[in-house]
Amino acid sequence: MEVMASSSDTHFSLFASTYDSIESPQYISFADNIPEAKDSFFDRRNQDLSSKQLTNKHYQTLPNDVSDDFIRPLEKIGLKNPTKEQEKIITSTPFRVQGLEPFPWRVNSKPQAAPNLDKQKTGIKMQPFSFDERNKQLQQRKIERVKTVLQAEKDARKFRANPVPKFLQKISINTNTTDMTINSKLKHKCATENSDSAPPKFRARSPKVLRRPPFKPIVPKQPLMLPSTPILNSEQRAKERKIFDNYLKNKEQLEAELRQLKEVALKKREEEEILKMRKKMVPKAQPIRYFKSVQVAQVAKRPLTEPITPAVIKRQRR
């Protein structure tokens, strides 16, 4: 089964590979063509990378990339002749396809007649859609994407030496002149000492101390201030201890007095009890006390009981 492709479809087929290479929202026509598993728009994981600003230099735009200024006029051109502004945009872009120019009717920047694309017949083979093939392609794209990311990270970790500077700065050495002068003076002194073979003569210094007046102590005019005795904690504790000892002494005296008073009272009480007991021990005449007469119960008169022999005894024979 063959399907005739329209002029817009043929124009789209010329630049299909360029649209697939651009990481941005793509132009897709579903007018006559049936989608296949190899189409890029089935990859739902493909993100819009145009919004991200990639700082890595491996993702920087190269001079042969297709710009958006070249893509926008293609949606409106069709088979009509382009305007002057569109011609400037198309000719200024460095994009080229092997075997094709930006437009088939513009070769070597000379105007030519547009070919009649209606007479060209393109056949499209109908194939059933399969999820297995789509999954394989998605997996392959994922593996390639991971490989590119790993390679970019590996390249970023490589050592890149800085370039050699164009000029070298001169190093100025600061010399200290003071050390040199001191050394020269010492050398000169040593040379003079060595030159004089005779020993130096002794020269006594003038006795300035003997000419000075003797030392006299100066008495201060203000009266001497006696230092105030400090308040020691030990003295305060000694006073408190003395007061406490007097309190204990008075307390012991009171307790001793109370103890003596108690002993005197106890002895007095004992003596009184002894006198009472002695008085009780003295015998006294006691009269017979009055008692009630004892009433004996009278026994009723009755006949005496006769004892009966028990039946255990054997009876006498008659």
TrEMBL record:
Keywords: Coiled coil, Cytoplasm, Cytoskeleton. InterPro entries: TPX2_C. One of its GO terms (cellular component) is cytoskeleton. Residues 237-274 form a coiled coil. Residues 232-306 form the TPX2 C-terminal domain. It comes from the Eukaryota. Pfam families: TPX2. Its main location: cytoplasm. It is found in: Cytoplasm, Cytoskeleton. Belongs to the TPX2 family. This is Targeting protein for Xklp2 homolog. The gene is LOC107219705.
